[in-house]
Amino acid sequence: MSIEEEKLVPDAVEEAYDDSQIQVLEGLEAVRKRPGMYIGSTGPRGLHHLVYEIVDNSVDEALAGFCNHIEVEILPGDVIGVRDNGRGIPVGMNEKMGMATVTVVLTVLHAGGKFGGGGYKVAGGLHGVGSSVVNALSEWLEVQVSRDGEIHQQRFELGKAVTDLTVVGKTEETGTYVKFKPDPSIFTDTTEFDYETLEKRMREQAFLNAGLKITLSDLRDEENPRTEVFCYEGGISEFVTYMNNVRGYSPLHEDVIHISLASGNSIAEIALQYNDSYADNILSFANNMLTVDGGTHEQAFKNGLQRVLNSYARKFGLLKENDNNLTGEDVREGLAAVVSVKLEDAQFESQTKAKLGNTAIGTLVTKLLNEKLTPYLEEHPAVAKAILDKAIGAATAREAAQKARERERKKVGLLNTRMPEKLSDCILKDPERTELYIVEGDSAGGSAIQGRDSNFQAILSLWGKMLNVEKSRADKVYNNDKLNPVIVALGCGIGEDFDLSKLRYGKVIIMADADVDGAHISTLLMTFFFRYMKPLIEEGHLYIAQPPLFKVSKGGKNVRYAYSDEERDQHVAELGGSADVQRYKGLGEMDPEQLWETTMDPGVRSMIKVTVEDVQAADEAIAILMGDKVEPRRLFIEQNAKYATNLDF
User: What is the DSSP letter of 400?
Assistant: First the structure.
């Protein structure tokens, strides 16, 4: 939950700025001082990133051809153990550093075997900071290396070696075992690992490396241990099948299309299948790292797919001479795809590897589509027709929506669609200072209009439940009388036309009744924003207002508001146990003053900021909960009912 607070800038204090204030952080001190630079955050996402860094090193051994089994354990006390049967970290002395190579790898930033020394042709860990960062942010870490017939062991605390590397046994096996406990002084929110989060990542890595076995075990509950083994000989083709199955989508063609192409030490691999949904789900990876923000490989796939399908449609008469070309949005409707590239010297934007920047790999992806997808479609005309019928249907719907908007503009005689009748705008026009409340119902809207600060707060009243966009195409969205006012009021378009720079309000706040119907309306709106205005969420502009559930009063003067049953009971007890309690059934029951002082006053209000920690998980949840298929939804609800009050995007 994100609580909105007014930020005050303290008065400047004149202090000396001289040579003595310049600090040099040595060793891993910089990591402990600014952990977010290396793992993204010190919340749950950063905590789990520690596991990924160690597992990624083992996966790199698999990529190099020396490892076929990785074991990941969550041990009692939320200690993590990762074991592989790779070559094992070198254990000899590093002459330059004057210490054992294992010690160098775990204590020196930018030390590793992936800088072109021949140890790895392709690797996800390229900056040489992964293992050392995990060590730096752990209360303790132990490493055990099986190599050259001996077992070597060393222990570290807070990133520093507390023992020398010593031989503790003999073995005929090879591999590395890393065990660590995250430092609670760094991860102050939680050091508890979520099994489902790690399960998703391990399954993903098994899909991306055909034949690699990954075993995940949760041993925290000794009486009920949990173990799963992930191994997929079909690789990313099975990944695409899984993506469609888990969302309850029905494929339009039976086989997953799988194509690949190598050039030098680089390889591009694509698996895709179309389904009966209206959403697209494209996952791109570089050296097994999920590139959340895409990059050159993903953009080349999108552009190349559009060109190939347009070319095929022209060649075989599915698009006539006067027809417009299919847009990217058209050809991606109902697409499930995995784009996986492996290359030397991958250029990621950061240690968290969110976006790939290598231009040459984009050229390889384009070549792959031209040389492999085009012949596939020509050899499988029934598959090609199913895909293009879907895309042409999307284009028809899109063009119908555009024509409807043009007719509306001409009707009112304006270049842009007029503002909605139910929008009560604010005086200020600076998006940095303004906010829009999307309010359920005319009664609540009326109270909000009267209670707001009209300088910076705009109110848009909606009535009834709007369209479930998960089951609808864009033309239905544009023409929907509940959603069209939202689109027009925000002013930034939807889908491929979305332009965040045109957003008219810095905060978009959903304010609905605190009941089942209100939750449903909020969910429908969030589904719309996720599918058609995703950057609105990604850039932190979407919020959910938190109106109180109860008014607790005594004697007409002492009034308190409660946002939960527990808070209500606490207020009643504090007022002597004989207080009057009013349950708000809807926002319309509050007068303007109450709505302002509980829900709209920036000085005291509470709001949930809608964020997307995991785009793939959010996409999956929306498809299951808001889609047509009943069975996946039933299973999801049964498995997650106990978390119902904590579900988020």
Answer: H
At 410, the pLDDT band (50, 70, 90 cuts) reads low
Residue 26 is predicted with a pLDDT of 54
Kindly state the tokens that stand for 393.
Answer: 């249907």
Q: How far apart are alpha carbons 475 and 532 in whole angstroms?
A: 12
Please report, for residues 131, 299, 545, 583, the alpha-carbon distance to residue 50 in angstroms, rounded to integers and kept in the order given: 9, 29, 34, 45
Domains contained in the chain, CATH given: 29-230 (3.30.565.10), 236-399 (3.30.230.10)
Mean pLDDT score of the chain: 86
pLDDT for 353 equals 56
CA 424 to chain centroid, in Å, comes to: 34
Closest CA to 469 of 399, 402, 530, 528: 528
Nearest CA-CA partner of 251 in 260, 265, 241? 241
Residues 610-641 have pLDDT tens digits of: 988 776 777 777 877 787 766 777 776 766 66
Type of residue found at 637: I
Q: How many CB atoms lie within 10 A of CB 369?
A: 23
CA distance linking residue 128 with residue 351, whole number of Å: 10
pLDDT digit string, tens, across residues 155-209 = 999 999 999 999 999 999 999 999 999 999 999 999 999 999 999 999 999 999 9
Residue with tokens 């609808």: 472
Distance CA 388, CA 319 (A): 9
Cβ-based neighbour number of residue 1 at 10 Å: 9
343-359: burial string, b at 16+ Cβ within 10 Å, e else: bbebebeebbbbbbebe
Tokens standing for residue 453:
């600060």
Q: What are phi and psi of 607, to 5 degrees?
A: -140, 145
CA dihedral in degrees (199, 203, 208, 209; nearest 10)?
A: 110
Residue type, 189: D
**Number of CB atoms found within 10 A of residue 11's CB:** 5
- Which helix (H) or strand (E) covers residue 406, if one does? helix 381-412
> For residue 5, is pLDDT > 50?
no
Q: How much is the average pLDDT of 86-113? A: 84
pLDDT on residue 27:
61
Which one, of 467, 470, 459, lies nearest residue 509 by Cα?
459
Q: Give percent above pLDDT 90 in the chain.
A: 58
SS (HEC) of 157-186: ECCEECCCCEEEEECCCCEEEEEEEECCCC
Per-residue confidence (pLDDT) for residue 419, from 0 to 100: 86
Cα 627 from Cα 624, distance rounded (Å): 6
Q: Which amino acid is at 151?
A: I
Task: Name the residue type at position 474.
Answer: A
Shortest CA distance to 488 belongs to which of 421, 412, 428, 440?
421
Q: Catalytic residue numbers?
A: 440, 513, 515, 517
| Alpha carbons 549 and 511: distance in angstroms, whole number | 13
- pTM, full prediction: 0.78
